[in-house]
């Protein structure tokens, strides 16, 4: 795992150092398509400010967490009729690989073995 002070892949996307298929970019969050989609719609919503996981985010800035949920819903409205799963893998044992909190927005038909199932 990368050291806590090293930029994560998501910070590098936010900084424009790594390309991503960006679907939303505002003052507080960026959203882009997952590079290994597990559903026909699989978008990550990432706050620009880094928190390790959703528990840290919720404790520090619940309003930002609410904004992530709102953005996830808007993406789902645009791409899969407003119906979606919202997944925050929290901890290595639960499948978290990038320690910069992110919401997986999954919709439009999930593939087998999906992280949300
Ligand atoms: P998690 O396993 O919950 O930490 O989710 C990390 C997600 O980031 C995985 O679903 C990866 O496929 C995705 N991912 C990693 N690198 C990139 C990238 N460069 N662009 C888009 N998605 C990525």
Description:
- By secondary structure, the protein is an alpha+beta fold.
- 27% of the residues lie in helices and 25% in strands.
- It has helices at residues 9-14, 54-60, 62-80; strands at 22-25, 29-33, 39-47, 85-87, 103-110.
- The chain has a 5-stranded antiparallel sheet, with helices on one face.
- Helix 2 crosses helix 3 (62-80).
- It starts with 8 loop residues before the first helix and ends in a 7-residue tail after the last strand.
- Adenosine monophosphate (AMP) binds at residues 9, 18, 20, 32, 34-36, 44, 89, 95-98.
Trace the largest sheet across and list its strands: 1-2-3-5-4
Radius of gyration: 13 Å
Q: Helix-strand pattern, N to C?
A: HEEEHHEE
The poorly predicted ranges are: none
The number of helical runs is 3
- From the helix content, strand content and strand pairing, which structural class follows? alpha+beta
**Number of strand elements:** 5
Query: How would you characterize the largest beta sheet?
Result: 5 strands, antiparallel
Per the principal axes of the C-alpha atoms, what is the gross shape?
globular
Estimate the strand proportion.
Answer: 15-25%
What small molecules does the structure contain?
A: adenosine monophosphate
| CA(first)-CA(last) distance | 25 Å
Relative helix content? 25-40%
Mean pLDDT: 93
């Amino acid at each position: 795992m990368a050291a806590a002070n090293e930029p994560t892949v998501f910070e590098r996307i936010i900084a424009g150092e790594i390309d991503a298929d960006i679907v939303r970019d505002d003052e507080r969050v960026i959203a882009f398509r997952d590079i290994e989609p597990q559903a026909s719609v699989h978008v990550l919503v990432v706050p620009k400010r880094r928190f390790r996981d959703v528990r840290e985010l919720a404790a520090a800035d619940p309003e930002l967490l609410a904004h992530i949920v709102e953005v996830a819903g808007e993406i789902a409205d645009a791409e899969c009729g407003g119906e979606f799963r919202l997944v925050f893998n929290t901890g290595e044992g639960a499948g978290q690989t990038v320690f910069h909190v992110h919401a997986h927005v999954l919709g439009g038909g999930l593939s087998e073995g999906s992280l949300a199932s």
